[in-house]
């Protein structure tokens, strides 16, 4: 009797776990917080300050989604993940979404069963070397010791790049960015390779950033973006359109400063009205209320504001918009229309 | 008089399975066995069907696909175009070599420290106690990271050798850098080549024929040397005089090996600074050294305690009797105490070897590509096959552990007290 009750509970628990993935939106609402996977610490993208408050470019996406869904951008539980643990954490339901400079690739989308919500940063893999090394191109790195973060597309690109150029190297796989930094600064590796944005961010934290340079070669395409589990299309739509709302807001000139004013009454531009819910009910179609996008924008501002505040040219990271400028200014950041 | 009927003559009834004490325990055990099998069957089936629902049914096809990543320490040939299976094999060999080196040094250190801990010299005994308590009470992961950090922060970089800030040791033959240690490697000008097994498959394996020949000759020499020893024992038993044999025994081992090395044309390949790194010579990576040192020191502390316990378990009368016979202290230790202590030392020693082997899976902390780093690390990550890779990893560690324990149990049987 007791045993069967035990087995029954176990079975119920297993099935419950199996079906939990079905309604992420309900789970998030029930929990009252969004569990968002971020990096373990990458200045400008996701970094906890001395009080444990997370801030950064990827963190802003989490906060925008939390604001859209829960009405409060601070109701986020940030789960630091390494390159290795992130997919397991997402697949197992430990986190609801992953915003951790993750490259959108075919196998991750199709084989690992994830759903990329879009691209929030167009990146490419680069190399950083001390100026004292006297290297001006990655093709001169024959025989060099290269530090890489393990569990990323980086190590595959690296293998391909050196193979294609017919030069040898000695890979040193490392789990986190801070360990890689320690080894690179101690001279245990000649160069450090990761996404160019990560290099800029890491370099900014060095004591003397000017002693190091990023080599001109960008050896891969790395479209980074937030992702969710495959199979819950509604949740995927929420994350995708929250990101699109931030991008569209920049395009339409809706900023954190004027979003409240625009949201209070319908204005002249119908697309702004649709976006902010003063006309139509796009939020209702997502299973949210009308003001979802207005809240998402109010937390950290639009895409451009988030970029400039966290990683832009006026920050220590100092990344120019480049490919990540809005399409209206010659970049690749482009959102499907809100209608 | 009524005779009591014999129940067993009456044929077998099913109720006997429950009411007859001869069968009852068997019945209960069989039912329990079925229950357990059903439970595990249900668990496995549930896992498999849930994974199938997720769209990731259990399959091992990924092992045949190209791994696409590079591994720094390779004992066999490997490129990024090889399969995941081969990458796992390379990782496995890295695990095995680390475990092998670690077990040997941990044993040597552990025995020495355990004996010294019982020393009558107050200072030596206290220093050893301090060593043991420090090492076994701090997690091994910290030791690994400490040793590694010390290496990368204090040793010179290869570029320091170029600018002359650092120089090689022993007539420019050994280079100690923060990327590892380069020592001269033995090369053969008249090499016999490799013996390639398994053709071009993922499990292809080249065995150096030079090494095989040297090992055969070495073991032949050791065998002959033991013959000489036996002969000497016989003469000693018969006449009471032991002939001097050490030079015979030593030359039987050394000369054949020296001759075969000369025939094969042994020469040393010295490391040289070329480009970014040293080239040539045998390269022991900083990660391997850090793991080796940390695991050896850590496990040695436990082995030392086993050794001390084993020695103290031999009754004091034994050593007193040996002293009474006029046997010197060191011979008392090696001829009387240790052979008896070994019987107590070996069973816990097996677990220490197993612990060391399993602890070697912490290697990824310093970027050493062992089985955990390849199969359960990058392969897992790139293919997304968590369950399959982890199951395979578990099976391999289980197999390694069982192999170590069977070898050690065999050794234990050969030294244990034969009771009459």
CATH topology of the largest domain in chain A, by name, is D-Maltodextrin-Binding Protein, domain 2
The CATH superfamily label of the domain at 64-153 and 285-415 in chain B reads MetI-like
**Anisotropy-based shape of chain A:** globular
Strand content of chain B: 5-15%
Q: Uncertain segments of chain B of ≥5 residues (pLDDT<50)?
A: none
> What's the tally of helices of chain A?
14
Secondary-structure content class of chain A: alpha/beta
CA gyration radius of chain B, whole angstroms: 29 Å
Instruction: Count interface residues per chain for the largest interface.
Output: A-B, 47 and 43 residues
Termini Cα gap of chain B: 52 Å
Q: Estimate the mean pLDDT confidence of chain A.
A: 87
* CATH architect. name of the domain at 64-153 and 285-415 in chain B: Orthogonal Bundle
Between the first and last Cα atoms of chain A, what is the distance in angstroms? 58 Å
How much helical structure, as a percent, in the residues of chain A?
A: 40-55%
Reading the helices and strands of chain B in chain order gives HHHHHHEEEEEHHEEEEHHHHH
Strand content of chain A: 15-25%
CATH class of the largest domain in chain A: Alpha Beta
**Main sheet: strand order of chain A:** 10-9-11-8-12
Low-confidence regions of chain A = 1-21
Quickly describe the structure.
The complex is a heterodimer of chains A (339) and B (420). Chain A is of the alpha/beta class.
List the helices and strands and how they pair.
The complex is a heterodimer of chains A (339) and B (420).
Chain A: H1 2-19, H2 24-31, E1 34-39, E2 47-48, E3 54-55, H3 57-70, E4 76-81, H4 86-91, E5 97-98, H5 106-110, E6 114-116, E7 121-123, E8 125-130, E9 144-149, H6 153-164, E10 169-174, H7 177-185, E11 191-195, H8 196-204, E12 212-214, E13 222-224, E14 227-229, H9 233-252, H10 259-264, H11 270-276, H12 282-286, H13 292-300, H14 303-310
Parallel strand pairs in A: 1-4, 1-5, 9-10, 9-11
Antiparallel strand pairs in A: 2-3, 6-14, 7-13, 8-11, 8-12
Chain B: H1 16-19, H2 21-53, H3 84-117, H4 122-136, H5 140-154, H6 158-162, E1 175-177, E2 180-183, E3 185-188, E4 194-197, E5 205-208, H7 209-239, H8 246-264, E6 266-269, E7 272-274, E8 277-279, E9 282-285, H9 286-313, H10 316-324, H11 329-359, H12 371-383, H13 386-415
Antiparallel strand pairs in B: 1-2, 2-9, 3-6, 4-5, 7-8
Helix pairs in contact in B: 3-4, 3-9, 3-12, 4-9, 5-9, 7-8, 9-11, 10-11, 11-13, 12-13
């Amino acid at each position: 009797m007791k045993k069967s009750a035990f087995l029954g509970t176990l079975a119920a628990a297993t099935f419950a776990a199996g079906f939990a993935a079905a309604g992420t939106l309900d789970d998030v609402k029930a929990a009252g917080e969004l569990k968002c996977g971020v990096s373990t610490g990458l200045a400008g993208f996701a970094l906890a300050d001395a009080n444990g408050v997370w801030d950064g470019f990827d963190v802003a996406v989490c906060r925008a989604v939390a604001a859209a869904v829960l009405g409060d951008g601070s109701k986020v539980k940030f789960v630091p993940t390494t390159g290795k643990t992130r997919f397991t954490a997402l697949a197992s339901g430990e986190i609801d979404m992953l915003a951790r400079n993750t490259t959108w690739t075919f196998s991750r989308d199709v084989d690992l069963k994830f759903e990329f919500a879009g691209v929030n940063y167009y990146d490419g893999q680069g190399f950083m070397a001390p100026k004292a090394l006297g290297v001006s191109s990655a093709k001169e790195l024959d025989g060099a010791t290269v530090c890489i973060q393990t569990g990323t597309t980086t190590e595959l690109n690296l293998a391909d790049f050196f193979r294609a150029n017919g030069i040898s190297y000695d890979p040193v796989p490392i789990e986190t960015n801070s360990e890689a930094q320690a080894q690179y600064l101690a001279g245990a590796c000649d160069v450090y390779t990761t996404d160019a944005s990560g290099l800029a961010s890491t370099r900014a934290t060095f004591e003397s950033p000017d002693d190091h340079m990023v080599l001109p070669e960008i050896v891969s395409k790395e479209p980074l973006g937030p992702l969710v589990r495959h199979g819950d299309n509604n949740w995927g739509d929420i994350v995708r359109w929250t990101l699109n709302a931030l991008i569209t807001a920049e395009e339409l000139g809706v900023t954190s400063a004027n979003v409240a004013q625009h949201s209070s009454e319908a204005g002249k531009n119908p697309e702004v009205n649709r976006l902010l819910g003063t006309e139509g009910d796009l939020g209702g179609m997502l299973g949210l209320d009308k003001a979802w996008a207005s809240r998402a924008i109010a937390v950290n501002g639009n895409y451009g504001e988030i970029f400039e505040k966290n990683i832009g040219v006026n920050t220590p990271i100092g990344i120019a918009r480049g490919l990540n400028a809005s399409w209206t200014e010659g970049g690749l950041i482009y959102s499907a229309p809100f209608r | 008089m009524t005779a009591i009927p014999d129940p067993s003559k009456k044929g077998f009834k099913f109720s006997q399975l429950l009411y007859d004490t001869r069968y009852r325990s068997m019945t209960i055990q069989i039912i329990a066995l079925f229950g357990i099998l059903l439970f595990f069957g249900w668990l496995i089936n549930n896992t498999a069907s849930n994974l199938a629902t997720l769209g990731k049914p259990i399959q091992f096809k990924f092992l045949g696909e190209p791994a696409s990543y590079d591994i720094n320490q390779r004992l066999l040939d490997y490129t990024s175009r090889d399969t995941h299976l081969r990458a796992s094999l390379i990782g496995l060999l890295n695990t095995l070599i680390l475990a092998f080196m670690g077990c040997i040094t941990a044993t040597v250190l552990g025995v020495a420290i355990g004996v010294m801990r019982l020393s009558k010299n107050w200072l030596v005994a206290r220093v050893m106690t301090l060593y043991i308590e420090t090492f076994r009470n701090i997690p091994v992961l910290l030791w690994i990271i400490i040793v590694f950090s010390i290496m990368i922060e204090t040793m010179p970089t290869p570029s320091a050798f170029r600018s002359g800030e650092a120089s090689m040791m022993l007539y420019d033959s050994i280079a100690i850098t923060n990327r590892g240690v380069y020592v001269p490697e033995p090369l053969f000008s008249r090499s016999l080549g490799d013996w390639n097994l398994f053709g071009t498959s993922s499990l292809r394996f080249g065995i150096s024929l030079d090494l095989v020949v040297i090992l055969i000759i070495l073991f032949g020499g050791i065998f002959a040397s033991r013959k000489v020893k036996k002969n000497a024992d016989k003469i000693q038993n018969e006449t009471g005089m032991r002939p001097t044999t050490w030079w015979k025994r030593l030359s039987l081992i050394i000369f054949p090996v020296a001759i075969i090395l000369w025939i094969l044309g042994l020469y040393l390949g010295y490391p040289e600074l070329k480009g970014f790194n040293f080239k040539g010579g045998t390269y022991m990576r900083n990660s391997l050294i850090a793991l080796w040192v940390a695991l050896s020191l850590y496990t040695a502390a436990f082995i030392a305690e086993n050794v001390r316990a084993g020695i103290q378990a031999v009754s004091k009368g034994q050593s007193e009797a040996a002293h009474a016979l006029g046997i010197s202290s060191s011979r008392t230790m090696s001829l009387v105490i240790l052979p008896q202590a070994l019987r107590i030392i070996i069973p816990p020693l097996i677990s220490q070897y197993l612990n060391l082997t399993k602890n070697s899976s912490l290697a990824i902390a310093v970027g050493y590509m062992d089985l955990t780093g390849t199969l359960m690390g990058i392969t897992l990550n790139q293919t997304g096959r968590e369950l399959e890779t982890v199951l395979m990893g578990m099976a391999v560690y289980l197999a390694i552990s069982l192999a170590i324990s069977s070898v050690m149990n065999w050794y234990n049987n050969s030294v244990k007290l034969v009771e009459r």
